[in-house]
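Risk register update: the risk of archive-format incompatibility is retired. Evidence:
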Amino acid sequence: MPLAASHREAIISACPLFEGLDARGAGAFADVAVEVEFGADRAIAREGEIGSGMFIIVEGHVRVVREGKVVTHLGAGEFFGELSVLDGAPRNASVWADVPTTCLAVSTWDAERVMRDEPGVALALLRVLAGRLREAVADHRY
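Archived output:
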């Protein structure tokens, strides 16, 4: 049975990617989110391919693989694919379902439309990504 709109909105509101997002922005993103299921050991995203959307994990967990090496594992409430949505560049990692996994998926074109209509969504994304960039830069200082 598909998730109710209110449940999709609650998942989006709790996702770290949308920290600080107001109810209107969360609702707009929930309206375009689609529930998708992946079987165990199924590729969800492939390194080097152009991404067509982003994902928030509802249930299950995935492994993120870059250049053949597992770099991290993600579980419920975590997200991936947001960079390809923002810049249109090829994915920098593959993502595989470790177990049967359910995600909320948002296509690039829907995400772009929501960000244009609800600037708070774009601002929330930028804040989280800026924080990640600062961490990455700090990790590589000599």
